[in-house]
Amino acid sequence: MINAHFNIFSINTSLFSNCLEGVTEEQAIQHLSPNTNSLKWLAAHVTWARYQISALMGNPPANNPFDGLFENFRPHEESDDLKSLAEIKQEWDKATSLLATSFSTIDADFWEKDSVISFPLQQDKSNASLMAILVQHECMHIGQMATLKKYLTGIPMKLKKP
């Protein structure tokens, strides 16, 4: 199970980069409607979430540059500093490295312990169940990013390692 979670995160690492390839800063801030998030918002959000996942695993980042932007389902505000796409990608790489370290150093009993947070769809209160929800969350947003990339650039996301 643990390897499955890590493997999905690894796949998403490549897909994330592929979703940003060829997207301009101007395209990245566009919304399909007033009720949808931009590609830049999604990229910053999943990067923030990777940092948060490492923190939940007992390996918090020295700095999460997106703190305060996504907590408690906070809606996006135009004044939010989401950074440039290049900066988001750099933070994604840092969060990815931290997450890999978290998976490689976590105690085996972590997965059976009760999680400090829970979601309505969580099957039980274990960290393993929470991680399944968090993996699904990231996959959903990577899919949204892929759709926006295709919409904005006319080029589909590639299924390749960058």
What this model shows, in words?
The protein is mainly α and 162 residues long. It is built from 5 helices and no strands. The chain has helices at residues 2-20, 25-28, 39-56, 85-105, 127-153. Helix 1 packs parallel to helix 5 (127-153) and helix 3 runs parallel beside helix 4 (85-105). The radius of gyration is 16 Å and the shape is globular. The chain starts with a helix and ends in a 9-residue tail after the last helix. The relative contact order is 0.21.
Please state the structural category: mainly alpha
- Describe the oligomeric state of these chains in a short phrase: single chain
**Gyration radius, to the nearest Å?**
16 Å
- Determine the strand fraction and express it as a percent band: under 5%
Q: Please summarize the sheet with the most strands.
A: none
The helix-strand sequence is: HHHHH
Task: Give the overall pLDDT as a whole number.
Answer: 91
- In total, how many beta strands? 0
